[in-house]
Amino acid sequence: MPTDTAAATVEDVVQRRRGDLVELSHSIHAEPELAFAEHRSCAKTQALVAERGFRITAAPGGLDTAFRADFGSGSLVIGICAEYDALPGIGHACGHNIIAASAVGTALALAEVAEELDLTVVLLGTPAEESGGGKAVLLEAGAFDDLAATVMLHAGPIDIARARSLALSQVAVEYTGREAHAAVAPYLGLNAADAITVSQVAIGLLRQQLAPGQMVHGIVTDGGQATNVIPARTEMHYTMRANDAGSLSELESRMADCFLAGAVATGCGHQVRATEPSYLELTPDTWLAEVFRAEMVRVGRTPVAAEFEAAMPLGSTDMGNVTQLMPGIHPIVGIDAEGASIHQPAFAAAAAGPSADKAVIEGAVMLARTVVQLAETPTERDRVLAAKAARR
Description:
By secondary structure, the protein is α/β, with parallel strands linked by helices. The protein is 43% helix and 17% strand.
């Protein structure tokens, strides 16, 4: 376990800042902002650490709603990810306000022991997790290059220490045909809406043969403009998920054939384009996850048993891209949403309730104590530093 001194210090800091952290969570929740437009939320998330003396770097990677805040100059550089984007129509139904506030609490706590533990604490404001892959963009830009490990947490309906996620890719599929009057001369047209129908039928039939962990879901974003005009252009968006990148690649190939089928059957042209970076599957660091599990038990939580965690992937996240590169964790901290799960309106309401406030405080304490134990365990500290050196 962490030393009594360092552990007590980080916990005391979080408890002393309880009011500020809960206020931050509620403020972000009250003004939900979508991917790459989180200007108010970005400013709110960095305000408390800026006051504490963190060095702020604005817009890393060219992302206006991202930031990096550094404190200390220790040899072990630890990243803490803050997310703060919301969902269209249902606000913070994924609880990113909780993520941001707990990340700030973790950063403030670790700043108090940074010199003692030879730490550099890095709070990263990472936009567009719901759509856009902000972390993937920041990784490509080098914002994570000097980090030895990265931690964050996510709210959910239950507690999961070693949370898993699915690999994901998203595409837009455009069909182009030829207009014609739907009654006077339909034979002169090439119906781009029919191309979508054929493709979706093919996808529906494919579902029977999907491998375990594979799934697809999509929407039509442009189905035509008038019933008496054969549509010359239509578009649909599809998300594909799988247990890992290899399985996802296989699924993408099979889906490409379904998209092609719509074009072949109707004579339309078609184009498939990625709408955002791919999300890789989470690979949580086993040691860090077990330390966090012990912290969950210490504060009175009941995390899902380790043998069941792999069977409970919770959607997809660009934090998976980070954990593919370096040691990291993305545990789920449960809140009481009266049976609702993430991406439901009732979960959005619960994300500013008493159990969410508790998750902010306990989450910050658990993350901070986990980092303290990493810093104070020579073999594990050496392990992540060696991995960082090898990555370089």
